[in-house]
Amino acid sequence: MEMHQVRYFLAVADTLNFTRAAELCYVSQPALTRAIQQLEQELGGLLLRRERKLTHLTDFGRLIEPHLRQLFADAEAAKTTAKRFLSLQEAEIRLGIMCTVGPARFMSFLASFHTANPGCEITLVEGVPARLSEMLLQGQLDLAVMAQPDPFSERLDALALYRERFCIAFPTGHHLEQKIMSKSGMSPAKPICGGSIASIATTSRTSCERAASASASGFRANARTGSR
User: Fold this and answer.
1) Residues 6+ apart with CB under 8 A from 50
2) CA-CA distance, 71 to 43, in Å (whole number)?
3) Helix/strand/coil (H, E, C) string of 177-196?
4) Rounded to whole angstroms, what are the CA distances from 28 to 6, 37, 87, 181, 216?
5) CATH placement of domain 3-86
6) Helix or strand or coil: residue 143?
7) Which pLDDT band holds residue 135 (cuts at 50, 70, 90)?
8) Is residue 228 within 8 Å of residue 131, measured between CB atoms?
9) Rounded to an integer, what distance in angstroms lies between the CA atom of residue 69 and that of residue 154?
10) 17, 89, 97, 208: which is deepest, by most CB within 10 A?
């Protein structure tokens, strides 16, 4: 049974006219007639009866018609749902976030994504790289933003988003200052906020802070932790 056969039959059932039904379905009348005949052969009985210019449903046709209407409606609903999902008009995205990725850098991207895809619902899952990788491999996440020193699994596709500098921070006069500087060839950074901090260390953000930033960006996100 083909969907076009069902559609042709329903068009005739609505119009009780083969010529008009063919016009509505944008096919020739012989093609429409052949398709309905093939459907009748598969179902094992006549669905329509043509007596001169009078076309009407047979008793068998009236019995089968509501089932075919429901079948056609379900098929159309399935196509609509699939189209909306694949075009991101209505989809749930499970996004993993490494716990050291700050909201200031990430929320601008989410805000832009929400503007372009307002029908998406994003679930944020915070965790360490090992746990996020495990959830990706198990299908519990769709994608994740994270970094790790070791190569990713061959089953994962990795795309570099940006690069970050990592520096050592210690107070002025610390016993490791001169030792590290001499070995690495680095020079102390300029003082920041009155201190002589070498750099700013990456700061961990909580799930609540992410959720608040997400809400301010104009989309709904369900933030939860991915730790065990």
Assistant:
1) 18
2) 14
3) HHHHHHHHCCCCCCCECCEC
4) 16, 14, 33, 84, 56
5) 1.10.10.10
6) strand
7) very high
8) yes
9) 47
10) 97
Q: Which residues pair with 15 in a beta bridge?
A: none
Please write down the HEC assignment for all residues of 47-68.
Answer: CEEEECCEEEECHHHHHHHHHH
CA–CA separation, 130 vs 98, rounded Å? 10
Q: Where are the domains of the chain?
A: 3-86, 88-163+206-228, 165-201
User: Which tokens sit at 130?
Assistant: 């090992």
Distance CA 88, CA 105 (A): 23
85, 91 Cβ separation under 8 angstroms: yes
**Positive or negative: CA dihedral 11, 17, 18, 19:** negative
Q: Which amino acid is at 118?
A: P
3-class DSSP state for residue 127?
Answer: strand
Residue carrying structure tokens 């769709």: 142
The string of pLDDT tens digits covering residues 12-70 is 999 999 989 999 999 999 999 999 999 999 999 999 988 777 889 999 999 999 999 99
For residue 22 the two structure tokens come to 């063919």
Domain 88-163+206-228 of CATH type 3.40.190.10: yes
Q: What is the pTM of this model?
A: 0.50
61 CB-near residues (< 8 Å, 6+ apart): 13, 46, 47, 48
